[in-house]
Amino acid sequence: MQLFFIFFAAVFVNNIILTQFLGICSFLGVTNKRSQALGMGAAVIFVIFTSCILSYLMHKYILIPFNVDYLQTILFILIIASLVQFVEIVMKKYSPTLYRAMGIYLPLITTNCAVLGACNNIITKGYNTIWETAIYGIGISLGYALVMFIFSTIREKVDYNPTPMPWKGNPIGLVCAASMALAFFGLGGLV
Amino acid sequence: MENKSVLKDLKDTLTLGMFKQNPTFILFLGMCPALGITTKCVNAIGMGAAVIFVMFFSNIIVSLIRHIVMDEIRIPVFIIIIAALVTILEMGMEMLTPELYDAMKVFIPLIVANCIPLARCEAFAQFNNPFKSALDAIGMGIGFTIGLLCLSFVRELLGLGTVFGVRIIPTAFTIPAFSSSCGAFLTLAICASIAAALVIRNRKRAQLKEEVV
After folding, report:
1. Are B31 and B191 in contact (CB under 8 A)?
2. Is residue A58 in some structural domain?
């Protein structure tokens, strides 16, 4: 039951994009087409899940015993960067089509603050077991992919409608994001 | 004559990031802190100063080592430099201004993953000399701070009824939604559309001028 609450809170109540404001760059940048948003979501699910578990283990078995937890930021960004590189190599070898479709967005995951933010959250929230960490990682990344997908479908529709010149592109997208945030705000008191 | 054009070049480098390529409203870089910490004006100044500090040194270091670093591994190298600077900053802030540090605790480590320092290292510092890179960092940093201040001014005024902690609107008339995530997106949308309108107007004026000439 505890695990279910962690999962539900990570997906909806503390959604990483709409209530924690992390990963906004990719939220605005990669959601012009539905296929792009889905691809980015899938890659981020893998990276967040793996980096959460890795950073939890590293923090518990390396940083704490050797009393060097001020190196947290540097270590975590190293984990994420090498993980992204790893995904890139594997994808290039086994699925070149998907690799070409993802293009520039793959290396950009390194500077996606949602990943680093999720890793930091695990430490600050003090999750004690590997199960809690794994569930939290899955929840956060699913929440990310969900919001990316919904937002991209809204944007595809908005593109067909006439908009005043200065509001074209990102500003009108941000208004849509505001209404989405309002909807997620309503889930606030649940957990 | 030569001297003058050099000076103008330097001035352009400095002001580019402040208005023409304002990172918050035009380039849409570094959005996470722009939305996350702008509930109060004080936080905006603190965050701006932190980013200026990190960018200033990362730009200088990157432009100093620009001939040594190989092309393939440049992004990991840049990120490690930025991460080291952020760690130094974190320690310094925890010691000097514990209150401000508490308010921005979540977002200080995230400067590492903030697009602005990395984008400027990648787009500017690795091609230019240290002096120009430093100017660019200051210009971009001030542009970022201006963006944060605009957002936090609107949000603090409407959401909490205060500006820099001084009460202007009585509590009964505030709109708490502006302190939440929804208000953050809405404020940014309005500011960005104003910026876009200004850009369009300037472009039209330039066109008119050309036609007259």
Report:
1. no
2. yes
Q: How far apart are CA A149 and CA A31, in angstroms?
A: 8
Residue A32 forms contact with B (CB below 8 Å): no
Contact at CB, A178 and B113, closer than 8 angstroms: no
Report whether B141 contacts B55 (CB < 8 A): yes
Domain holding A56, by residue range, is 26-185
The minimal CB distance from B192 to the residues A73, A117, A171 is found for A171
For B83-96, what is each residue's pLDDT tens digit? Answer: 899 989 888 888 88
| Residue A69 bridge partners (DSSP) | none
Q: Is A112 left (phi over 0), alpha (psi -120 to 50) or beta?
A: beta
- Could you state, in chain order, the average pLDDT of each consecutive group of 10 residues for chain B (213 residues)? 69 76 80 82 87 91 85 80 89 85 79 80 82 88 90 88 81 81 88 89 87 76
φ, ψ of residue B167 in degrees (nearest 5): -75, 130
In sequence order, the 6+-apart residues with CB closer than 8 A to the CB of B57 are B85
Q: Which two tokens stand for residue A18?
A: 């709409």
Contacts of A15 (CB under 8 A, 6+ apart): A143, A144, A147, A184
Phi-psi region of A23 (alpha: psi -120 to 50; beta: other; left: phi over 0): left
Q: How many CB pairs under 8 A join A and B?
A: 129
Domain count, chain A: 1
B167 bridge partner residues: B162
Spatial CA neighbour of B51 closest among B139, B129, B122, B133: B139
Q: Which residue of B has its CA nearest to A15?
A: B181
Confirm whether A190 is domain-assigned.
no
Select the residue of A72, A120, A178 nearest B182 (Cβ to Cβ). Answer: A178
Tokens of A2: 């505890």
In this structure, is residue A19 part of a structural domain?
A: no
Query: Which residues in chain B have their CB less than 8 angstroms from residue A174's CB?
Result: 185-186, 188-189, 192
Q: Is A77 an interface residue toward B (CB < 8 Å)?
A: yes
Residue A16 lies in a domain: no
Which of B112, B115, B200 comes nearest A73 by C-beta?
A: B112
* Model confidence pTM above 0.95: no
pLDDT in tens, B54-80: 999 999 998 888 888 877 777 788 888
B191 burial via Cβ count (<10 Å: 0-12, 13-18, 19+) = buried
Two tokens, residue B67: 């001939």
B91 in A contact zone (CB under 8 Å):
yes
- On whether any CB of chain B is under 8 Å from the CB of A25, the answer is yes
